[in-house]
Design goal:
By secondary structure, the protein is mainly beta. It has a single domain, classed as Hypothetical Protein Aq_1857, Chain: A (Sandwich), CATH 2.60.300.12. Helix content is 13%, strand content 37%. It has two helices and eleven strands. The chain has helices spanning 19-30, 82-85, and strands at residues 15-17, 38-42, 45-46, 50-51, 54-58, 66-70, 73-77, 88-94, 99-104, 110-111, 118-119. The strands form four sheets. A four-stranded mixed β-sheet has the order 5-2-7-6. Strands 1-8-9 form a three-stranded mixed β-sheet. Strand 3 and strand 4 form a beta hairpin. It is globular, with a radius of gyration of 16 Å. This is Iron-sulfur cluster assembly accessory protein. Residues 17-116 form the Core domain. One of its GO terms (molecular function) is 2 iron, 2 sulfur cluster binding.
């Protein structure tokens, strides 16, 4: 009988973070409430088109969440949202009038006129 070895390899993260997004998460963790272990990205149902991006502090790990560890903190991706986000890039953008996370999501098939939500 042959001994079969299973090889595991690291899989790429579902979401790629730009340096500015990583820095923003580090900044958020620097001012996070006590007990915060990271920030969590999810896609709750909301808006005209169906799904929206939501980033919130998190105090516990959920069983099926994806975990992306960075020097400045941890980004969790809601397990139910991962399929909607695979291959996305998360960026932090600031200008004179607005600041926020911006997503380039190849899975989004459309979005509402106000930019609040997207469809897959």
């Amino acid at each position: 009988m042959t001994d079969v070895q299973t090889k595991t390899r690291a899989r790429p993260a579902a979401v790629l973070l730009t340096p500015s997004a990583e820095q923003r998460i580090a900044d958020l963790m620097g001012q996070a409430p006590e007990g915060t272990i990271g920030v969590k990205l999810s896609t709750p149902k909301r808006g005209c088109s169906g799904l929206a991006y939501s980033v919130d502090y998190v105090t516990t790990e959920a069983k099926f969440d994806e975990k992306i560890e960075m020097p400045g903190g941890v980004l969790y991706i809601d397990g139910a949202s991962v399929l909607y986000l695979i291959g996305s890039t998360m960026n932090w953008v600031e200008d004179d009038f607005t600041a926020g996370f911006v997503f380039n999501n190849p899975n989004a098939k459309g979005s509402c006129g106000c930019g609040e939500s997207f469809t897959v």
